[in-house]
UniProtKB/TrEMBL annotation:
It comes from Vibrio quintilis. PROSITE patterns: GGDEF (PS50887). This is Putative diguanylate cyclase YedQ. Residues 67-196 form the GGDEF domain. SMART domains: GGDEF. It comes from the Bacteria. Its EC number is 2.7.7.65. It is an enzyme of class 2 (transferase). GO terms for molecular function: diguanylate cyclase activity. SUPFAM superfamilies: Nucleotide cyclase. Keywords: Nucleotidyltransferase, Transferase.
Amino acid sequence: MVDVFEQALSQFDIALATRLDLFLAERYNRNALFIKATRDSLTGLANKAFFMDRLRSTLLTKMESSHPYAIVICDLDGLKVINDNLGHRIGDVAIKEFANCLRRATRELDTVARIGGDEFGIISPLKSNADAKDLVQRLEAEVTKTVMYETNTINLKASIGFSLTSQDGVEVDHLLDLADQRMYSVKRNHYQKMRMQPR
């Protein structure tokens, strides 16, 4: 029981520290500290701290809005293979190009963030639940491509999962877990199809 309490307290402290960092950065030097505190240095997208802060704020706002939000998790397939075969420098190129694809497929009012090494998150306000499938189709169409860099061929592909506030609730961890589980389900399907292809 003590361990559970200490873990909860630790998570609270981390969340509080993150909010304080964001507050101080925005208040005192938006051009420098704010960007450093909220942006991913490799891609220029929002970072995980900003994404989580925006998600919590969005879910509070959702209680006053009838419009659904999609919480999307996008995973860059095959990054380990790229890193192993072509090196981490080319892997970074793949990550940056993947991030640019996400920018092109989303709107200014969407929040797009890099939340892990090869994992990206999107918070997207929708008019209806059906818009979520349209968003996923746009993302898949944009990121599924072959990129040439120097003498290297980089094949980009994504596994995408999402949850909806209109049907999955407004609890942060639950929405993220559902989107993550659905993303991994898509990834397993991709892997199985790849294994079935003739060599």
